[in-house]
Amino acid sequence: MSRRLLLRAALSACLLGALVCTAFAAAAPRRSATAHATAPRRTRAAARHGRTTPSRQAAEPGPLAASMAPADSSRAAWTQARALADAGRHEEALSVLRGALARDPKNTDLRWLEASVTGWNGGHAEAVHRFERLVADHPELEKDVRGDLAGERLAAGDAAGALRDLDLRVAEQPDDRDARMNRAQALARLERMKEALAAYDALLREAPDDADVMMERARVLVWLGRNGDAAATYTAVLARQPENRRARLGLAMNENWQGYHRRAAARLESLATDPEPDPEVWKTLAFARDWNGEPDRARAALDEYLTREPDDAEALDLSRRLRAEQSPSLTAVVAHADDSDRLRIRTTRMELRLPLPHQNTAELSWQRDRVRDDGGEHKPFRFGLGLETVWSEAWTTRAAIGHTELGGGDTERLGELSATWRPLERMRADAGVSHDLVLTRLSLADRIAVTTYVEGADWDLGERFTVRAAFRQRQFSDDNFAHTEALSAACRLYAERRGRISATFGGEQLHTRHDLDDGYYDPAAYLEWGPGVEGEWTPQPPFTLSGEGRLGRQHQRGSPSRAYVNGSLRAQWAIERVATLALELGRSDSDLSTAAGYQQHRWAFSATRGF
């Protein structure tokens, strides 16, 4: 065979092999080369007051993945499903997609849209699962899907997983504004407020008039306790967009956090009359009514919300709390106090609370005190009946009567009558009178009781300052008389979503008519003053820590002044469907902190069970 014939044969074989390879490649399933272009990308993570809801724009589908089903059928199904989803008809869109996927199960565009619509329909956890399966089957789609997957993780409550994906997405696509917006939201959900604020500030530097970013930033300001700045932001948005529902709702939420519960409720009632109100309106209204002392109206608003969002964890927690407060409950208390004069008081108490119609609550109580020092011991026993009535959002009253057995056939009648008035949302005034025993061993031995008249007021002056004043008069059964005046102020130094810290400064003085040495503290004149700190922290909603401390000077007439240190700590743990447990610890060496005027260490433990 000639060299020319050999060359011709070789060329023919190469051409035949190429044709065979091309035929096999054409027959094999492959993903769409434009899957990232046809995917339902989110245009803005419009977090709807605590939840992330993806917004959508309809996109024209590009060439769909080659499969065993006709390409025109899959393309038509994608287009129809997308149009239905954009019209809010998610269930119908999912039905179309599932039918198309039954014919074309390997079509990545259809699977991507199915995962997205599942999330738009509220099934965020399922959407995450579908996106993860899509990436597992097609690793080459990981970068394209990452933004949508992160958004669904965030909406499903997995802020840490969302942030992990979003960090990668922003590193890959620094200009992806939606991913950066979602990343700021994830930081806020993880309580990294300063980082979230910086992320929103960066977005606003690029687009100062972006209302969505402004409102998300305002929510972080609320969680940081900067309510005034948040209100200014919402007001600025409403100045340009008066009908912006999210801004109106955000302003109401901010007012509620500031303590303007009635004003917030009025604004929310107006929002609830909109043709299609945001469900968050009802939840925020429920909290406003609850914090304003209106449990029945709070329950009604919460029921409206739960019909729309039955699985919302925050709403379900409020529902359980309202149900517990409106149900009978039993509280057991054990307390112990140890004074530096060797006076020891051990108290055991039981309280049964019974909600009644028309905003009334009855209380039955039983208490045993063991009071002893080096001179002896007394064990007074008491029981009582009380009634608390909420007359309106401004007025609440309490009345109680009691009877105590002192031993040796001696008895004493006890009682209390008090009222609380809230003329303004951030002002409270209290007045009352009570008759009780003086719990020291010497006073019990002499059967000394005291009638106390109390007037007090709290007033929040703006966003950070609170002023408190109190006046007490005591009339003792041994014909002695004493009066006490106290004035203090608090300034909030730090606040975040789960905690706050305030600095305090105050003083208190006591004057007594006679120094009788009947077992209670009765100097001619006494004054104490000094700075302090108080705070509260909720690491997780069922568990709360609170405490206060104070350091100052105290002076009794005729004696040199000296320093004092008072401190207390309280931990509360609400165990769902079991009980609410509380532990209190305290120590003090202020002469006013105990009946006898000595240093004291104390603790108390309580457990409350609802029925």
From TrEMBL:
Record key words, sorted: Repeat, Signal, TPR repeat
Composition bias (Basic residues) maps to: 39-51
Q: Spell out the residue ranges making up region: Disordered.
A: 31-70
Q: Where is the signal peptide?
A: 1-25
Q: Which Pfam families match?
A: TPR_16 (PF13432), TPR_19 (PF14559)
Q: Which InterPro entries match?
A: CellSynth/LPSAsmb/PSIAsmb, TPR-like_helical_dom_sf, TPR_rpt
Could you confirm whether the keyword Signal appears in this record?
yes
The UniProt record lists the keyword Repeat: yes
Name of protein: Tetratricopeptide repeat protein
Please give the organism: Eiseniibacteriota bacterium
